[in-house]
Design a protein that fits this description.
By secondary structure, the protein is of the alpha/beta class. It has four domains: about 15-310, 3-Layer(aba) Sandwich (Rossmann fold), CATH 3.40.50.300; about 315-365, no CATH class; about 380-600, 2-Layer Sandwich (Nucleotidyltransferase, domain 5), CATH 3.30.420.240; about 610-640, no CATH class. The strands form four sheets. A seven-stranded mixed β-sheet has the order 5-6-4-7-8-3-9, with helices on both faces. Strands 10, 11, 12, 13, 14, 15 and 16 form a seven-stranded mixed β-sheet that branches. A hairpin with a 5-residue loop joins strand 11 and strand 12. Helix 3 (about 35-40) crosses helix 6 (about 105-115) and helix 5 packs across helix 6. It is elongated, with a radius of gyration of 29 Å.
């Protein structure tokens, strides 16, 4: 059954896929709490969101895959039992007494510790655990950290362990959980003897020290703040990153310092925990999306070493459905806590709603990624739902918009490809290419940190070009040559080229070259007045809302769309940005392209006039059209 091809990227019907497969053998063989939870979720015992259903389905499918040639992983019931027995002895931080873990909590521990590589190491070297706030995720991570520090370190020396968060206050919080857990455990056997053997000083657990040291073997658990970034030189066996969805954690170089230090470490694991945040373009959420897609493409083996467990509501409309809040707040399933937690959540929602800040409740208490402002130009849902990997731009008609950079801004081309889909609906495919100056930032590294975008990686994927100018400013020749090459390489039929002159002689040079070399292109300087741009600005916004837009999973375009906010005037809407470092150049370029592109499907537009259609034809096509209409005598063609 493991070779059945399941693709959930379109249908998202996890339950349908689950019911189509016979899991009887797995159900009979595996009675552990982790697997029982997976079955219970898919059998409808718990109210859960799509992402957890997907993770549970992955768990059961992977149990079926064990033994396959291309699947070097197995589920170790011995390790599952070990971590759950250990967790049953760990104190909760407020009462300092052990608490009975819920099924969903056992599923997290069983998944992260139970799945193993054929060499015995943990399968999941990277993991994301995301749940609404106040659900005890820090407590669970303290259990995993202490388990790794005390148990997995036996027989090993000079091992590093990490807990990290944005600043000292947040990092100290998770460290205090770990110290409290250790202090209580080491006061009882068999842990007390193990603590003495390891050389753990109990007094140090009551101090303000930012590390816990084992003097007998030089193993050390370090608390390092993100702000300090002192990850170099350490090789972390287990690393916990708290609240990594915060936009402060956008520096991928720092993240890579943690993971690169783990390259040659046995049984390594880096776990990021967080709730949702307003900025959906952060690396944490981008990783979530990638692993969700990998899980949906069940037949592929992508993302096999990356775990993603997300408890979240599925739809923004569930904000008004308290019975659905348990999807993000699984503690609501605990009878003793349900009533008080539900009351607290309703109170919080009402307060945020009254203050006009319902987005905060949706972010933190429903674990939804969305923009933090009602002024957002397009919704996160519309931006993400527009993504496709199935569009061929070659040979198509296209409208091009051009936004030339000023100072630290990027230079961007926006390409709008009108097309008719298989259902006969008129649509637009959007593409962009940006040129990245770094002079103002001082270096491309600083530019990436400033914008929160890994331009060097995206350049490899074809979404941008880092300027070739030695001083880090835009190279006009490079921009022009790229455009000409792109159009010719893809055999594009350019209908329109709209640009913002912006008082720049460089733009005028590009415009003059295009007019001289491509006389069939309609080249137009678009006055950037609100009265002039309000209509295409609104058209693009509505096209996203009505699902008329498709695009590649391009982070440059995605971030620009999410950075844009709406401003209103007597002339209509326009787009702007909240602060200078946010980039919306791509949005401006797309709006310029739609200045004429929005009329493409209008029956009475100048584009669809008989003359315009005829002028866009090749010589051969014009002859064929003349023959069809009787304007050309066939005998005349024979004569020539």
């Amino acid at each position: 059954m493991s070779d059945i091809k399941i693709d959930l990227t379109k249908t998202h019907d996890v339950i349908g896929a689950y019911r189509s497969i016979d899991f009887t053998h797995i159900r009979d063989k595996y009675q552990d709490p982790g697997t029982r939870y997976a079955f219970d979720v898919l059998d409808g015992k718990y109210v859960t969101g799509y992402h957890i259903k997907l993770s549970c389905f992955r768990h059961l499918r992977d149990l079926q895959r064990q033994g396959d040639k291309d699947f070097p992983y197995h589920y170790s019931l011995e390790d599952v039992t070990a971590i759950l027995n250990f967790a049953a002895q760990c104190p909760e931080v407020k009462t300092l007494k052990p608490v009975k873990l819920m099924a969903w909590q056992k599923f997290i521990l069983a998944t992260l510790i139970g799945w193993r590589h054929s060499d015995g190491d943990k399968r999941y070297a990277r993991a994301i655990v995301s749940v609404a706030r106040h659900q005890g995720k820090t407590y669970l991570m303290a259990i995993i950290t202490v388990y790794s520090f005390l148990i997995e370190s036996i027989g090993e020396a000079s091992q590093d362990y990490l807990v990290t968060s944005k600043n000292f206050k947040q990092t100290s919080k998770i460290l205090s959980y770990i110290k409290s857990t250790l202090r209580v455990l080491l006061e009882q056997e068999p842990w007390a003897s193990l603590g003495v053997e390891d050389g753990i000083n109990l007094k140090s657990l009551a101090s303000k020290s930012d590390s816990i040291f084992m003097s007998s073997n030089n193993n050390e658990l370090k608390a390092i703040t993100w702000e300090s970034g002192q990850y170099d030189g350490s090789h972390f066996k287990t690393a916990i990153g708290d609240e990594f969805g915060d936009p402060a954690f956008s520096d991928v170089d720092k993240i890579s310092k943690i993971t690169s230090g783990q390259v040659d470490v046995n049984d390594k694991q880096f776990i990021q925990i967080s709730t949702a945040y307003p900025d959906a373009t952060v690396p944490f959420h981008q990783d979530e999306k990638r692993i969700i897609t990998a899980m949906e493409q069940d037949w592929k083996r992508d993302g096999d070493t990356y775990c993603c467990l997300i408890w979240a509501v599925d739809d923004i409309n569930e904000t008004e459905q308290p019975d659905m809040w348990v999807k993000a707040n699984p503690l609501l399933d605990m009878p003793d806590k349900h009533n008080k937690l539900m009351l607290d959540l309703k109170t919080e929602k009402d307060a945020d709603q009254l203050a006009g800040n319902i987005f905060s409740f949706q972010n933190k208490s429903l674990n939804m990624w969305l923009q933090s402002s009602a002024d957002s130009y397009v919704s996160l849902q519309s931006v993400e739902e527009s993504i496709t990997d199935d569009f061929d731009i070659n040979g198509r008609e296209v409208y091009i918009g051009f936004d030339y950079s000023q100072f630290s801004d990027n230079t961007a081309f926006g390409f709008v490809f009108p097309y008719i889909n298989d259902e006969g609906e008129s649509k637009y495919f959007l593409y962009q290419h940006s040129f990245i100056p770094w002079n103002h930032a001082g270096s491309i590294e600083n530019k990436e940190k400033q914008d929160g975008i890994n331009y060097r990686e995206l350049e490899k994927r074809g979404f941008c070009t880092i300027t070739g100018h030695q001083d880090g400013i835009i190279n006009t020749d490079q921009v022009y040559n790229w455009l000409v090459d792109f159009v010719q390489r893809h055999n594009l039929q350019v209908i329109y080229f709209g640009y913002d002159e912006a008082g720049s002689y460089q733009v005028l040079n590009i415009k003059d070259s295009l007019i001289a070399n491509f006389p069939t292109w309609q080249v137009e300087n678009i006055k950037q007045w609100p009265s002039n741009l309000a209509k295409p600005t609104k058209y693009l916004q509505d096209a996203f809302t009505t699902h008329k837009i498709a695009r590649y999973d391009d982070p440059v375009m995605g971030k620009a769309l999410l950075n844009a906010i709406v401003t209103n005037s007597a002339y209509g809407i326009s787009v702007d940005k909240n602060k200078a470092t946010l980039k919306i150049d791509v949005v401006d370029a797309l709006i310029d392209a739609l200045f004429q592109g929005m009329y493409h499907f209008d029956e009475y537009s100048s584009y669809n006039s008989e003359f315009a259609k005829f002028s866009r034809m090749s010589a051969a096509e014009q002859i064929q059209e003349g023959l069809r209409k009787g304007a050309i005598d066939p005998e005349f063609l024979d004569d020539i």
